[in-house]
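Worked example 2:
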Amino acid sequence: GESDVTDIGIDYLCSSLVSKTLTIIDIGMLGEENIDHVDVASLLTHIPHLTSLGCYSFVGKALQYIIDNINPSFVSQLQYLHDTGTMMCTMNAICSTCPHLKHLYIDSPQSNTLARLTTLRDLQRLKIYRFKCDEIAPVVKCIGSQFCHLTLMKGHGIMDVTLLIQHCPNLIDLDFYMMDELMCMRSSGAGEEKFKQLRSLEILNSQM
């Protein structure tokens, strides 16, 4: 959680007996890099069955450090990941080291990085904060059928909801928060497309 963790504490955790069985470690403070990514890299390389680092928001940076400095062939068991300020090199590291990723939260990705998400073939839940709406379109067209949960926050530009209707037939939960503009073009004729599985739709502070 939000309690301070020392280097000594992390070293002890990495060498302890529980390192062989731990799958989830909720560490750090949301949005703050109060634990160095090098220490998080140590957790990832010494605790082989980790599936989540909870609210720690710079996991991609730790994965990139592993590839660049420890093991270029490293593959994690992570199923959930949160990264902030994601650059292309970081996104490449995420995609190459996390083949089992099911739930991803990307905060403020650099331009053109979202296209790499199309390589994540197990991804089911996607949450993005501060992004360009036109950059999500290729992702939705390629792997949208995988998504069960999609949360889009503070998207800049026009978000075409029609794309989601066409390419995300398995969506159960869809959330829009603080979007610049949402647009939905009605299709004509008897074969009008619609969400078939959607159970929850939330739209807050978004222009329509």
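The two ends are 37 Å apart (CA to CA). The first helix runs from residue 7 to 15.
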